[in-house]
Amino acid sequence: MAGPGSRVFISHLSGIAVFDPNGDQVGRIRDVVVSLRIGGRPPRVLGLVVEVVGRRRIFLPMTRVTSLESGQVLTTGVINMRRFEQRPSETLVLAELLDRTVTWTKTGAEVTVLDVAMVQTRVREWEISKVFVQAGKVSRLRKAKGETLTLDWSAVSGFALIEEGQGAANLLATFDQLRPADLANVMHHLSPKRRAEVAAALDDDRLADVLEELPEDDQVEIIGKLKDERAADVLEAMDPDDAADLLSDLPEEAAERLLRLMEPEDAASVRRLLSYEENTAGGLMTTEPIVLEPDATVAEALARVRVSDNKPALAAQVYVCRPPNETPTGKYLGTVHFQRLLREPPYTLVGSLVDDDLDPLPPDTPLQLVTSYLAAYNMVAAPVVDEADHLLGAVTVDDVLDHLLPEDWREAALHGGEAHESEARGGR
């Protein structure tokens, strides 16, 4: 355990592993809970917010922490797995204090909070002791805009105020390595104000990836707080099927306004998807499968499959069609699966390898039949073709699962399953 006087910067705790007395990993730290105190007294550190299996967030009191060293946290005793619920008297350091503009009382200058440090007192309690700040504005890349210095907590003021336009540079830097689904989990647990600040600070592609992992209510809230031009750019960066799902949850007038602001080609794909019933192959499909002409080689096909932006289910096969190659394509000829591509010489033409034994799905195929099709033939994706044999898109197993699970499955996953009331802080 770090001894009395040992200083620990909070941002360095983000994401580190927490282990129980048996040495088994419990989860990872996502935030630190403190209680602000009056009279300039340093905030008391109450405990840690730990994300466990299933993305459930639990509260780990500091009294249960036996070691806070070497990039890991060790605990003692039984850990309560009830879901963490923040109380009005509590403040989350990473979510609410970073990026805040406060006043250095000695000079009256405004400074931006980059980090805060906690220290263990002689009575073995933890409290916030230092504030690492920077003069002037801070960019998303943390480029220096002014002097940085470490101040005593008592040397700054403004933490008790509710700040508008707080920004999110340092919060995002703390969570920079998270997968989109994990960053979505972080954003879901923020206040609406803080969530909007984080969304504003993310670039279009990153925000698009995160939106696809959020519950519908969060998606609608975030897109509604963006300026229309920015919202249209983010929708363009989303997968067309996800963009269509989001637009279908907006009021018709708002959805049409955003569609008009999107690039015509992107808007056309989304409009096509919106024209199909939601629980059909047409409503489920993506309009951006990997399409090749029959005279393309295996080497070209593998190069397309290797593109990192391709989702695994879409990269499992290529669709061979006559030109044009954009959906709706020319005549659909068949599918070549990734494993077959690996077995063939690189100069082989994909037109000679097509599997045309399975009939493609019409766009009006209901969800139940789409599910049966994928299960019966052990497929992770299936082509969707119209009456004139034009490839319209592909249905992937992840999109099917999205629609088979309960409507609130994302929110349930972000809460780690069934909600439980958090136990009292003081008596554990």
Brief account:
Pfam families: CBS, MgtE_N, SH3_actinomycetes. The protein is α+β, with helices and mostly antiparallel strands and 428 residues long.
Describe the protein.
- Residues 285-353, 354-411 form the CBS domain.
- InterPro entries: CBS_dom (IPR000644), CBS_dom_sf (IPR046342), Mg_transptr_MgtE_intracell_dom (IPR006668), MgtE_N_sf (IPR038076), MgtE_transporter (IPR006669), PRC_barrel-like_sf (IPR011033), SH3_actinomycetes (IPR058838).
- This is CBS domain-containing protein.
- There is one protein chain.
- By secondary structure, the chain is α+β, with helices and mostly antiparallel strands.
- Among the domains are: 7-84, PRC-barrel domain (SH3 type barrels), CATH 2.30.30.240; 291-404, CBS-domain, CATH 3.10.580.
- Helix content is 30%, strand content 23%.
- It has 16 helices and 18 strands.
- Strands 2, 3, 4, 5, 6, 7 and 8 form a seven-stranded mixed β-sheet that branches. Strands 1, 9, 10, 11, 12 and 13 form a six-stranded antiparallel β-sheet that branches.
- Strand 2 (17-19) and strand 3 form a beta hairpin.
- The longest helix is centred in the middle third of the chain and has 11 residues, at 264-274.
- It is elongated.
- Residues 139-144 and 418-428 have low confidence and may be disordered.
